[in-house]
Amino acid sequence: MQTEKVTPMMAQYLELKADHADALLFYRMGDFYEMFFDDAVAAAEALDIALTKRGKHQGKDIAMCGVPVHAAEGYLLTLIRKGFRVAVCEQMESPAEAKKRGYKSVVKRDVVRLVTPGTLTEESLLEARRHNYLAAFAEVRDACAMAWVDISTGAFHVMPLAQVRLGPELARLSPSELIVSEAKETELHEVVSDFGIALTGLARSAFDSTSAEKRICDLFDIATLEAFGSFTRAEVSAMGAVIEYLTITQRGNLPLLRPPQKEAEARTVQIDAATRRNLELTHSLNGGRTGSLLSIMDNTATAGGARLLERRISSPSRVVDVVKARADAVSFAYENARIAQDIRTRLRNVPDLDRALSRLSLDRGGPRDLAGIRNGLIEAEALHQSLAQHDLPDLLREAAEGLQGHGELIDLLDNALVAEPPLMVRDGGFIAPGYDEDLDAARELRDEGRSVIAGMQQQFVTDTGISALKIKHNNVLGYFVECTATHAEKMLSPPLSDTFIHRQTTANQVRFTTVELSELETKILNAGNHAQEIEKRLYESLRGAILDHAAEIGQASSGLAEIDLATGLADLARSENWIRPRVDMSRAFEIEGGRHPVVERALAQQSGEPFIANDCNLGAEDDGANIWLLTGPNMAGKSTFLRQNAIIALMAQMGSFVPATSAHIGIVSQLFSRVGASDDLARGRSTFMVEMVETAAILNQADDRALVILDEIGRGTATYDGLSIAWATLEHLHDVNRARALFATHYHEMTALAGKLPGVDNATVAVKEWEGDVVFLHEVRKGAADRSYGVQVAQLAGLPAPVIARARVVLEALEKGEREGGATQKTLIDDLPLFAVSPAPQPRPAKTSAVEEKLKEIIPDELSPREALELIYKLKEAAKS
How sure is the predictor about 681, in pLDDT bands with cuts at 50, 70 and 90? Predict the structure, then answer.
């Protein structure tokens, strides 16, 4: 039996694939990335491309598919979004270099990068206005921590984090990928799967805190980690794991990261995953951005400003001084509208400095990134000069100070680069004329070779006195000097023979060359490649100069984002009629004329109807719990009222103006929302179970500075069960949690608690009845509702008239029994006459016309055209009769 031979190329592929078994291998072959075997089958299905075959292996066809190198980024994005990891294998030498080792030598290839969800940097693979975080969770003894980076911007953060808080923090950050120890992978899978995050297990050695500290120090070239502050062993472990993973995926070419910033839970409002989802902070309930608070507030002009806005919405501050400083910045821009408008005009010309810098650091950038840095720094310097003339609040002053001091780098880049460079280095033409003499000469030869040759020809004519002398070119001889046989003797005799070297004689012509012409020919033929090599060298020089100023560029980028956010929020406040809230350490929660910004915008766009503003006062003194018990019918706006007050508190503490006529908010430490629920079939949880789990989390965590909004607790079970749970929940919030809360319910019996618990007030959403219908006024007033108007809402929803009529009869009987107090529910139901409401009359079938009867007898396929025409005339006559 003959043993099948494995080709050298396939042997190389199998060796590389064995080292990256968990990833699709993009194997570079010329202008394509090829995939083989199971990789090809999976990729062809995921990308919807043709699956073909190439040769055999172990007696079976080798499946193959491929994608063009120039379009690879789009295919990479599709694969990453579908959960694949991709190992990019490039050719490390040219085929010509490989042949020097032997005719059958295989081109050297190696994996240069492992593409995963958390390690994307390409502009086309990322959302410009969102961070793309890679996070790592570590546990050392009984302490835990999480570190996260965005390698596309250089952001690097770390915080101590109990494992129970992992879910809420993942909801806040929305990382694309989470790294954990292989020992924790199974345990954390359920938590991570809730958020659609890619979970990656690393060897336990990657989390060793001792080696992790060395990795951090080596990355930042520092002697000790104390240069950045004090970190726990768990925090060091998490940071070290991130760096180890980047080393693996980037094949040692580490991104440019900023020094790690330590965060603390105590400095930001704690918001759990359910609350973020219910309030639709950064994503609407359908998962998209449209309809979220972020979509309404994003009035930023730059990508960096947009990312900062999302961070602020996701992590409002609970430090009064921080909130005040941010609000001061917005107030300055609000009060100086003309200055703010000039700033925003300039900001619209600012490219994404952070991501351009990151791509350059990873050597994935191009000439446009160089130009982006230049253009961004030019605008930064201009903004600094403009802002320096004004008395700025602290936050804007600090931001403006970081915009200056880039003159030397700007001059270098401005002199070196053309105004609009191409995308890729290989495209050439991005270095400005006059910047480099050698490049200008190479370009002249490349672009003006004919004129240079013509000039040399004229010089030869002058030197020889032979006017018929020509310089010509063919594919055999290249460039040569040609003259007629008549003048050949002169050319072959001294002194001309010392310069002109005979090459060929034909019937009528004699051809020569010169040393100068040969050298010029070589230069012309190589001028294109030479110009490209010079530009590559200059590109590397400019890239190095930028990276040498990376810290200053990062500071400028942060300053631009801060200025952008402040001016954007101020512009939004003017257009939407928002006001600056008062935020302090009291327990106040006084909002007058509050509005829901998302609903208000939707109403204006869809129907032009005004939003009905409402007040909310949960008490201004330190007098214990402050709870509003809200009653009223469905569709009246209870859920909107609950959500809008939570959103106003969040906006206030992120430093924004708020949609109200006035607002005084004492710092909120935690924000909890349980509004609406759905079942969780994947975990076998009913809607009621989900509701109870979320409610339990609130009651077990809320402190006396929390803001809690609860809607319809207990509605998913039997009436008395639900009422008892809702009743006990409200008492617990009042007596134990002592939190500020809005508690909406349909259990009117609970309104009696307002007379028993000093911190509870009744409020209701007003409605008006008119001729049996209900009109929703959307006004929240003090007092209690005595009806839910459920039947009227059902009628509005379109339930059949017989169902509505029957429901009214049943409701009247049940309410009568409750008033009389003597009849049991079973007796009342037994006394109700079955089908007391007559069914809706069914329409009588219409009488069939003579024309319809005739049409039933006709078989169209059997009619000739003439018969069909005659039939039409007959039917017309029958219709008249």
Answer: very low
The predicted pLDDT at position 837 comes to 47
Query: Binding site annotation covers 841?
Result: no
For domain 582-792, give the CATH number. Answer: 3.40.50.300
- Amino acid (1-letter code) at residue 213: E
Check whether 10 is labelled as a binding-site residue.
no
3-class DSSP state of 230: coil
- Apex CA 263: angle with CA 567 and CA 327, to 5°? 25
Amino acid making up residue 755: G
The Cα 347–Cα 563 span in angstroms is 9
Superfamily name and number for 8-115: DNA repair protein MutS, domain I (3.40.1170.10)
Question: pLDDT tier at 527 (50, 70, 90 boundaries)?
Answer: confident
Output 752-755 pairs: Cβ under 8 A, ≥24 positions apart: 753/629, 753/727, 754/629, 754/784
φ/ψ of 578, rounded to 5, equals: -95, 160
The pLDDT tens digits of the residues spanning 690-722 come to: 788 888 889 999 999 999 999 888 776 767 788
Q: Please list, in sequence order, all residues whose beta carbon lies within 8 angstroms of the beta carbon of residue 211, skipping any fewer than 6 positions away.
A: 205, 240
Cis preceding-peptide flag for 117 (omega within 30 of 0)? no
Q: 636 labelled as ligand-binding?
A: yes
| 124 in a known ligand binding site | no
Question: Which pLDDT score is estimated for 539?
Answer: 97
Distance of CA 735 to the CA centre of its chain: 42
Q: How confident is the model at residue 448 (pLDDT cuts 50, 70, 90)?
A: confident
φ, ψ (nearest 5 deg) of residue 89: -105, 120
Strand partners, 616: 591
68 is in an annotated binding site: no
Question: Which CATH code of 3.40.190.10, 3.40.50.2000, 3.40.109.10, 1.10.1420.10 fits the domain covering 298-406+549-576?
Answer: 1.10.1420.10
CA-closest candidate to residue 147, choices 133, 162, 167, 128? 133
Judged by DSSP in three states, 381 sits in helix
CA–CA separation, 721 and 703 (whole Å): 26
The CA distance from 306 to 352, in Å, is 11
Neighbours of 806 (CB within 10 A): 16
Architecture of the domain delimited by 438-536 = Orthogonal Bundle (1.10)
By the 8 A CB rule, do 196 and 174 touch? no
- Flag whether 633 is marked binding: yes
* Distance (Å) of CA 548 to CA 35, 146, 277: 39, 30, 43
> How far apart, in whole angstroms, are the C-alpha atoms of residue 550 and residue 321?
30
Residue 635 assigned as binding residue: yes
CA-to-CA distance for 623 and 757, rounded, in angstroms? 12
Q: What span, in angstroms and rounded, lies between the C-alpha atoms of 367 and 780? A: 59
Please tell me the CATH superfamily of domain 128-263, with its number: MutS, connector domain (3.30.420.110)
Q: What pLDDT is stored for residue 722 in this prediction?
A: 82
pLDDT the model gives residue 679? 46
Residue 583: count of CB within 10 angstroms of its CB: 25
